[in-house]
Structures are given as structure tokens and as C-alpha cells.
Amino acid sequence: MTQSLIQKETSKLSRGLVPNFLPINTILVPQGAEYKAVCRAFRGVTGSIPTVVAIPVGMKPLLKYLHASPANAQFLAPKSRVLIMGICGSLSDRYKIGDLVLYQDCLYQGKQQECDRTFTAQLHSSISQKLSLVKALTSDRLIWSAAEKRRLGETLAADVVDMEGFTALEFFNAAGVDVAILRVVSDDCQHNIPDLTPAINSDGSLHPLPLAIGMLRQPLAATRLIRGSLTALKVLEQVTNLLFSG
Asked: Within 13 Å and on the Cβ side, how many CA atoms surround 13?
């Protein structure tokens, strides 16, 4: 149903029936490599540039950050638009490393939060690269097992997984702020990635030593993760530049 509604909005946009693409005020992107990739995309961009904010990894750290952030006044300003960007994991054979996905909605423990349909349709129309509308699952822990990813994809009819989407949508939807989520697949559902759970601190930051240990313990999985992440980050940088370079 949601996909059909977004496609109708996209069709309206192509016929000039939807208002012009309003400015994106803020981009939220997980701290670290994802944040750096989005920031790199704005080098040389001369037009209007949104505020890019690095957010913590994980549901609880993000919720705490959103409630306490000094940028709240900007986030929640009337007519503000927030775009969430980053990478995600695939739960389906249909989505490969490097694929660009635009969320319709996010699931978490049987609950669902929808992205803004008009905002999402406008993004869908403005991005010329191959782009898929997807249903996402937000997890409160890292899903590193390929078998678990496939099982979740099948049982929940979800396409991709992340660790922040539902929390962000719940927060901004309650505040009446338009939100869209654009991500790039960094790991598929055919191979395990390293279990880096011990490397994620309670504040949503990454602890370098446990991160290194986790990678060294599973070198083949680590190599795949690094290659997939580099591919996804490059696409993330490219699509960000595409959106804002005019």
C-alpha cells in the first residue's frame, strides 16, 4: 500500500501536480565513515548546503541524542525537512552491495513508522541512479549472521536492516517533521560480517580496540565487510553530491 502511494506521488510530481522540491534543512548520518563520506560530497558544491549532523549508532543512543541535542530547535523548526542517510544491510537476495535504497517505512517489534510520502516521492524523482523503494527493519543490535538476515527478511517481509531508522522516524513523526531515509547497501545476506557488537559503546560510538579484535578474529568476513563498506560509501558520496550539486 505505501509503495503504491509513493508511486502515485511520484507520478503527480512528474506531471507537475506536486509542489517544487522544498529545501532539505538537515542531514543526519551515523558518525564515522558514513558522516565523512557525506561531508566529502559537498566539496565544490556552491548551492545551498544543509546542516550535516553526525548521530550515534544504535536506537537508544540516538533517542537520547535527539532529545538532548542543541540542534533540536533546527530539527523541529516549522517546515523543516530531515534526510537520514547512511549504509544498511540487505535482508534479501534482491539487494546487493552498492544498491541505493529509499525507505518507505521502518519496522521494529511489530510497530511501523512511515517516511513522508511527498518528500520520498520527490527524492525518488530527483535521483537518476537506479533506486529501489524498500521496507526496512530497525534492530537494537547488530545483525551479523547471514542466516539470521535471511530469516528476518522472510518472516517480516523486510528488505534491509539498520540500527537507527525507526527511532528517528518515531521521534520526527511525533513532532510533525517531514523525514525521508536514503541508504546504500554495504553487506549482503549471503555472507556473515564480523560480530562487532563489543565495539559499539553505550553512547553509540565505536571503540577502536574491540573493533580491531573483532575484525582480526574473522579475517575473511572482515575483508568482505571492508570491501562492501568502501563500495557503499562511494555510492553514498556520489548520490549526496548528485542531490545537492544542482
From this structure: 19
Domain that holds residue 168: 2-244
Which of these, 246, 183, 240, lies nearest to 42 by C-alpha position? 240
Closest CA to 196 of 10, 58, 3, 77: 58
Cell numbers of 144, please? 551479523
Residue ranges of alpha helices (H) inside 16-157 are 33-40, 59-68, 72-75, 117-126, 146-156
Question: Rounded to the nearest 5 degrees, what angle is found at the Cα of 182, between the Cα atoms of 197 and 238?
Answer: 100
Q: Quick: pLDDT tens for 171-217.
A: 999 999 999 999 999 999 999 999 988 888 888 888 888 888 888 99
Extract the C-alpha cell encoding 85.
542517510
Q: Using CA atoms, how far apart are residues 163 and 235, in angstroms rounded to an integer?
A: 20
- Please state the pTM of the whole predicted model: 0.89
Q: Are 123 and 115 in contact (CB under 8 A)?
A: no
Domain count of the chain?
Answer: 1
Residues of the chain with pLDDT under 50: 1, 12-20
The domain that contains 42 carries what CATH number?
3.40.50.1580
SS3 content of the chain, % helix, strand, coil (to 5): 45, 25, 35
Going from the C-alpha of 241 to that of each of 38, 221, 235, the distances in angstroms are 8, 30, 10
Q: How far apart are CA 190 and CA 28, in angstroms?
A: 29
Kindly calculate the radius of gyration of the chain based on its CA atoms and give it in whole angstroms.
17
